[in-house]
Each structure stands twice: as structure tokens, then as C-alpha cells.
Amino acid sequence: MKIFIRFAFLLAAILGLQVSDGLAGGGSLAIPVPGMVTMVDLGATTCIPCKMMAPILEELKTEYKDKAAIVFIDVWKMPEQSKKYKVSMIPTQVFFDQNGTEVYRHVGFMDKQAIVAQLAKMGVAQPGGGGDK
Asked: How many CB atoms lie within 10 A of CB 77?
């Protein structure tokens, strides 16, 4: 039985090499997105602060479409991702520049203003003209 369970986990890991974006309900995505500033929120759909961030991430995903990638990864469903991104607590947000280099990391709930400010620091214009100065 243990061998079967290990095989199932191995198969799931192999099939899940590309990460689902978690919030859009499908598709797969190279993380960080090549050539684009990427914010990855590593959490779980059942974690309270993560649940609080979910609507914020959905808004940002829409507002920053084609400007920055906003990605959610459920580390309880994909535990290998917590190891890959060296996550010890959730939620953890990791920001990558357009070259794929990590430039900022935050642990805990992160409000919309803080995320927008970090994206602006990374050169991503705010939607609606707020960062086009």
C-alpha cells in the first residue's frame, strides 16, 4: 500500500511540473512568467489570511493583465512548490523581475496597496493611469 501511495505522489508530481495559476481554475504557467514581472502568492485555499487575499489577487490579475503576472499557488495541494520557493509560512509573496530574478519577498497578509506599491517599485505602471507619471 505504501508503494502505491508513493507512486501516486510521484505521478502527481511529474504531471504537475507546470503550476496551475490556482485562481483562474485551470491552465498552466511557467513561473516566473518569462519576460514579465511576476508576483507569486504561495498559500492555501483554506488558510484564513490566504482567503482574505484571494479577492485582492483576482482584482490585481485583471487590472495588471498583460503588465504583470499575478499567480497563486496552493502549497497544500502542491507541496513540492513550498520547497521550490523555500516557503516556511503562508501566505508568502515572492516578486520576480522580468528576468526571473527574485527581488522581494513578504510573509503574511499583504494588502492591495502594498502589492501595487511593490509592483510600481519594479517599474510596472499602475492601472488606470496611477503609475504613468
From this structure: 14
